[in-house]
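Database export, one record per block. Field names are fixed; values are copied verbatim from the stored entry.
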Amino acid sequence: MRKVDPFAAALTRVTSLIADLRKDGHNIRYVDAGGGLGIDYGATAFDPAKQVSKYAAALTKGLGTEPAHLLLEPGRFIIAQAGALLTRVLYVKRTAQKTSSSPTPA
């Protein structure tokens, strides 16, 4: 399972920057925490609820008391465990040197 500490550290630095910018009169309303909530494809016991809880706690800690709308990009984390790729070979290319096939999504 991936560590979430870097998310908290990054957001803490961003929060400090937001506070400085607000002191200078800038109206910062949104913070995009980006993506990168990783997933271990080789894990035999993956607990998404536990990982999301740790991620949310890290982001909350990092954001501190600066009010802002937090934007997230969870990406593959949402669907990685449910994914499957189905293909069918439609054409086999044969030459004197090699044989290769081109799978096409079914």
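Remark 1: The radius of gyration is 22 Å.
Remark 2: Strands lie at 30-32, 69-71, 87-94, 99-105.
End of record.
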